Amino acid sequence: MNAVNLGCRLMLAMVFALAALGKARGRKPFEDFIQTLKSFGLPRALAGAPLAATLILAEAASALLLLVGMGAGYVLALLLLVGFTLGIAWVIRRGKKVACRCFGASNAPVSAAHLVRNGLLLTITVVGAVSHEAASGGLAVGMGVIAGTVGVLAGLFVTRWDDLVFLFRGPQSLAALSRTRRN
To answer: Please, what is the average pLDDT of the chain?
Structure first.
């Protein structure tokens, strides 16, 4: 194991675990996630509870696989991130305003900022997967603590992405965007 691999694994595990928990922590967040999937333009027959549950379980499985150090966690993370990124790009291209339910309760509309976030996560996933393949031998305890701490903090940072965008850009809720479109 090397420090890069450990940091990437813990960062991605944190992101996917919090994403799954945010969507599955109650009936309302789960129903909101289903509504978001429908708003992404998926056929109604596909965008129901089974797809939402499958995605949440895939996020949780990816987090678990990454925590135990299996390369399959990177593969699953890559597939999820590519799918989510393509979905976000599709929504932006169509000019639709859809709430991002990436981590549960956010009302922030899907935007280019989410593409930037997902691009960062895709990069981390590829770097982690490559370093996973190259990882061999032990890791010094001190280096492991530093890499793990950086990974967990970076994961928490990414889950608060909408708040960071708000700090730099200001509020941009769906309600405000709807009022703007009506005028």
So the answer is: 86
